[in-house]
């Protein structure tokens, strides 16, 4: 599991379309699909049901999506704090 896979899951969850999600992430549809499939294999659960009408969360996906969103929010907060710390460094070496 990595942040990239979680970001793909988040985007697919938000847009409910593999085509639109992959376009938004500037990757191929097959790359996104394969990455999510690898994550699902690692987890042992399908996160999404795919159909011609779109892509929706499975029951397992509904249980896990809050954690995925929280992890990505925490990552963004961490990176923001690191940037703030770098800009606040004073003095010379």
Q: What does the model show?
A:
The chain is mainly alpha-helical and 93 residues long. It has a single domain (3-91), classed as Winged helix-like DNA-binding domain superfamily/Winged helix DNA-binding domain (Arc Repressor Mutant, subunit A), CATH 1.10.10. The protein contains 4 helices and 2 strands; from the N terminus they run αααββα. It has helices at 3-15, 18-24, 29-43, 59-88; strands spanning 48-51, 54-57. It has a two-stranded antiparallel ribbon with strand order 1-2. α1 crosses α3 and α1 packs across α4 (59-88). It is elongated and about 55 Å long. The mean pLDDT is 93. Belongs to the LysR transcriptional regulatory family. This is Transcriptional regulator. Keywords: DNA-binding, Transcription, Transcription regulation.
What is the secondary structure topology, with strand pairs?
Blueprint (H helix, E strand, L loop, with lengths): L2 H13 L2 H7 L4 H15 L4 E4 L2 E4 L1 H30 L5
Antiparallel strand pairs: 1-2
Helix pairs in contact: 1-2, 1-3, 1-4, 2-3
């Amino acid at each position: 599991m990595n942040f990239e896979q979680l970001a793909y899951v988040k985007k697919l969850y938000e847009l409910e379309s593999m085509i639109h999600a992959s376009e938004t992430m500037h990757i191929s549809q097959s790359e996104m699909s394969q990455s999510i499939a690898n994550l699902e294999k690692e987890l042992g659960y399908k996160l999404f049901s795919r159909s011609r009408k779109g892509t929706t969360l499975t029951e397992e996906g509904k249980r896990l999506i809050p954690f995925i969103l929280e992890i990505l929010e925490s990552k963004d907060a961490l990176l923001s704090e690191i940037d703030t710390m770098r800009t606040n460094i004073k003095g010379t070496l």
